[in-house]
Write a structure and sequence with these properties.
The strands form four sheets. Strands 6, 7, 8, 10 and 12 form a five-stranded antiparallel beta sheet that branches. Among the domains are: about 25-80 and about 110-215, no CATH class; about 355-465, Immunoglobulin-like (Sandwich), CATH 2.60.40.10. It has helices spanning about 25-40, 80-100, 105-110, 110-125, 130-135, 140-170, 175-180, 185-205, 210-215, 220-225, 235-240, 260-265, 285-295, 310-315, 320-325, 330-350, 435-440, and strands at about 60, 65-70, 70-75, 230-235, 300-305, 355-360, 370, 375-385, 390-400, 405, 415, 420-430, 440-450, 455-465. The longest helix has 27 residues, at about 140-170. It is about 45% helix and about 20% strand. A hairpin with a 2-residue loop joins strand 2 (about 65-70) and strand 3. It is α+β, with helices and mostly antiparallel strands and about 475 residues long. The chain is elongated, with a radius of gyration of 33 Å. It is built from 17 helices and 14 strands.
Amino acid sequence: MTTQNNSLYAAREPIFPKRVYGTFRNLKWAIMAVTLGIYYLVPWLRWDRGLNLPDQAVLIDLANRRFYFFWIEIWPHEFYFVAGLLIMAGLGLFLFTSALGRVWCGYTCPQTVWTDLFILVERWIEGDRNARIRLHRATWTPRKATLRLFKWTVWALIGVATAGAWVFYFADAPTLANQFLTLTAPAVAWTTVAILTATTVVLGGFMREQVCIYMCPWPRIQGAMMDDSTLTVAYRDWRGEPRGKARDATAGDCVDCNACVAVCPMGIDIRDGQQMECITCALCIDACDDIMGKLGRDRGLIDYLALSDAPAEQAGKKPRPIWTHILRPRTILYSIIWAAFGFAMMYALFIRPEIELTVAPVRNPTFVILSDGSIRNAYEIRLRNKHGEPRQFGIHVTGDLALRIELEGTPYESVEVAPDATHRLRVYVTTPPGGEIAQTDESPIRFWIEDLGNGERAFVNTVFNGTGAQQ
């Protein structure tokens, strides 16, 4: 009796990309070196901000709710800057996809960069494509086990370095590194490193193209960003078909060598047309150009091209200049919106004040009648000093000449605020009985703060509650 396997799941066929040389491969190496260099080295850059402030150039200080980026400091209430950066990143992705297809996926996406790095290690240890295929198909032997263990160890070290670099963005890098070496790092740091190490190795070393195909939503969204004028990697089938041997005079330029398939990290055949799996890495262009060069034929059988140029090229005409595909209404609109967000954020960044205050009237009770009949209101005030040194802030109130101000806990009308800090205090505003503001339900008043060191001022409008509502 035989059993039939009715499973709808097909096991993954591993992809072993062949090494290729060429312009786009060199470009990918350069981008990998730059992006990985930035990622691993930035937490170690120093930036002097003054006494009592962190000197790490880029730091996400969750404990103190700050984000430091060189000379820029983002406070919690300024989260709109982060939101603006995310919007700009999305618009930039739309712009580049509209102009050049999935160049983000093919060159700078972290999944692509780390997968390339893991494949580089795999090739260095196990050999190029054919050697890796033979090793994969071979039964387990001491040699295979040794090579696999060595490869996985190097992958794990890369994963640890990746995870360690990530946590260094959230704490002082030298201090945390020393804590790791002395085994005194906080448990949350160890846990984060363990999780990120595992995910880096699994996603970059084992899942690879499956992340792009099944986990990432962008391949399904990109169709809305692209049109027939988008420059993307494609096969000139009118020139390559019918396929045949190089010596066949009736065949097209494609000799069906499968070089483009062998180098593809996604395991697809670009000659089948546009496919969701294609990440536009252009390695197939390098592979095909190499074969065409050896055969003495024109390069560009596989190339960056716009589908709208296909009919003209097939008819023997020249395609439109590249700039006409890049500069068209859609990309210009994305560029304008992207630039507008950028200029708006820069403007908001440079005009933001170095001192700020917020005022919240105490509502329970809204006012108090003192023994002499005076009316007193209480306010919770937050003073924010963004300077790198302590500042003395004077506090005043305007709106009626009869108003008197008192700072809780001090006989003075000024208070010192620590550097790069927020100071909370309660302020009382009192008016004598019988005055117009005392007998009015709500009267507009304005709180002023002044930096007594340089004269910088800020204000907030609020109201003074009188007895009018009870009359």
